[in-house]
TrEMBL record:
Entry-linked Pfam families: FA_hydroxylase
Signal peptide stretch: 1-27
Protein name, as recorded: DgyrCDS13426
Keyword S-adenosyl-L-methionine carried by entry: no
Membrane topology listed for this record: Multi-pass membrane protein
Lineage, uppermost ranks: Eukaryota, Metazoa, Spiralia, Lophotrochozoa, Annelida
Length: 386
């Protein structure tokens, strides 16, 4: 045990030295680039506090990657949330869970290093070949239509992500954490974009692609800060906006939370379409059948595997197709979304999937993880457009 500890101490120190060298070698670059925008600008973007005139562009090429510019802010807010939790003696982020979430976030963004998002490609194609009107990119009215259109598109794709098993296979990644904190927001699927483009494509019939590209990013940024237990309720804003309270319900696995609150920015869509649920009692987070792994590949692929098994088990072509296109809770003899009464009640106290490593193992893994973060941050410097 002692030899192992010394070995890991040695490896860890070497990794930290490599990390420091990497950071110091690029100190000037990182110092200049870490916060690409003023702090006030960076933070208000999370709340959609942006004016149309500062976020309207004449071409898709000129739209900044707001997500990449927000990267350091993600980590500043995660650290801040944990300091407050520690100060208030509340539940802190678990390192294994947070690393699993952030890894999923990095994996989900990797295809963007090699090319444009399929959502943007399809949007530009539809707009170029099939548009029926051309709204003025420079008009505040277009900006507001973009805001509402993208948010409604998000509601539809999010609802489909829960009600169509194939899309759920992608979206379940976001729900697979049993914790609920800012790191959970980063837990995203690499496959989600391959489902979501079709829900935004109708907007391309009239909305300039650059307006879409701005709002789809702000819509995502807005959803970051609502992944927290630190904020209880926000008074009258709860009527109109998606809030931490509403989104906690969305992440709940208690039967009363299932298939509720699909909103991105505005909760009005859920109120309009009958999927709204207020937070009533303690929420237990995660999947109805909690995931028992930290393996990032399993996190991304497990439900596709499960669908494949179910597909092969079903006898008729109709049932095979139902396995793919009906809800994740469907089985033969139930309605499209399954039976609500079949949802298992949560047993308290909740048993979290967890494992404990020796102290030095944790440092070793964390050092690797820091290198990964630095490497990823360096890589995205080359990428300016989503
Ligand atoms: Zn969801
Ligand atoms: Zn969420």
């Amino acid at each position: 045990m002692l030899i192992l500890s010394i070995l890991f101490l040695n490896r860890t120190l070497r990794l930290i030295i490599i990390l420091l060298k990497l950071t110091m070698a690029n100190t000037s670059k990182i110092d200049n680039n870490l916060f690409k925008v003023p702090l006030s600008t960076g933070f208000r973007r999370f709340f959609y506090f942006v004016k149309p005139e500062e976020s309207s562009f004449d071409s898709p090429e000129n739209v900044p990657s707001y997500i990449n510019e927000a990267l350091p802010f993600f980590f500043v807010l995660i650290i801040t949330e944990n300091i407050i939790n520690w100060y208030k003696d509340k539940k802190m982020m678990r390192l294994n869970d947070a690393m699993s979430s952030i890894s999923a976030g990095i994996i989900s963004q990797l295809p963007l290093l090699f090319g444009r998002s399929i959502e943007v490609v399809v949007f530009c194609y539809v707009h170029k070949h099939y548009k029926i009107a051309e709204l003025n990119w420079n008009s505040p009215i277009t900006w507001w239509i973009g805001f509402l259109g993208v948010d409604l598109g998000y509601y539809c794709l999010h609802r489909a992500g829960h009600e169509i098993n194939l899309f759920w296979a992608a979206h379940q990644v976001h729900h697979s954490s049993q914790d609920y904190n800012l790191s959970t927001a980063l837990r995203q699927s690499i496959f989600q974009r391959y489902c979501s483009w079709m829900f935004y494509a109708p907007l391309a019939l009239f909305l300039p692609p650059q307006v879409y590209m701005v709002h789809v990013q702000f819509n995502l940024l807005y959803q970051y800060w609502i992944h927290t237990e630190l904020i209880d309720t926000l008074g009258p804003l709860e009527w109109i906006m998606n809030t931490p309270s509403h989104h906690r319900v969305h992440h709940g696995r208690n039967p009363y939370c299932i298939d509720k609150n699909y909103a991105g920015t505005l909760i009005i869509w859920d109120r309009l379409f009958g999927t709204f649920q207020a937070e009533e009692r303690e929420v237990s987070y995660g999947l109805v059948h909690p995931l028992q792994t930290w393996n990032p590949f399993n996190v991304q692929l497990c439900h596709f595997k499960w669908i494949w098994l179910r597909f092969n088990q079903e006898k008729t072509i109709l049932d095979k197709l139902s396995t793919i296109f009906k809800g994740p809770g469907w089985h033969k003899g139930t309605p499209r979304l399954g039976k609500h009464e079949e949802l298992p009640e949560v047993e308290y106290p909740v048993k979290l999937y967890d494992n404990h490593l020796p102290y030095w193992y944790n440092i070793y893994v964390f050092a690797h993880f820091l290198i990964l973060i630095v490497a990823y941050t360096e890589l995205v410097q080359f990428k300016t457009v989503n």
